[in-house]
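Kindly inspect what follows.
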Amino acid sequence: MTPSEFHELDGDAQILEIFHHAIELAVREDAEHRYHLYQLHNFYVDEIWHKEDCVRLVIKTFTSVNSAMLRPYLDKIDISKLER
């Protein structure tokens, strides 16, 4: 599966794909949101949930450990363990 194919799935299918095939790498929070970082197939998924409403707000994908999207998680994960 590619990031494009993942984004073509509806929300429920994306959640199932993450549940069955992803490895959760890190979770972080702020006052309103919970952020989950997953490795899925050969790419990464950054998922943002509203904590109080328990609603997924945004899902983003990226393919490189050098992506700026990884920066907020750097203190929570060892990027040397990520597949390149």
About this structure: The CA atoms of residues 33 and 51 lie 5 Å apart. The chain has a mean pLDDT of 88. Helices lie at 3-8, 11-21.
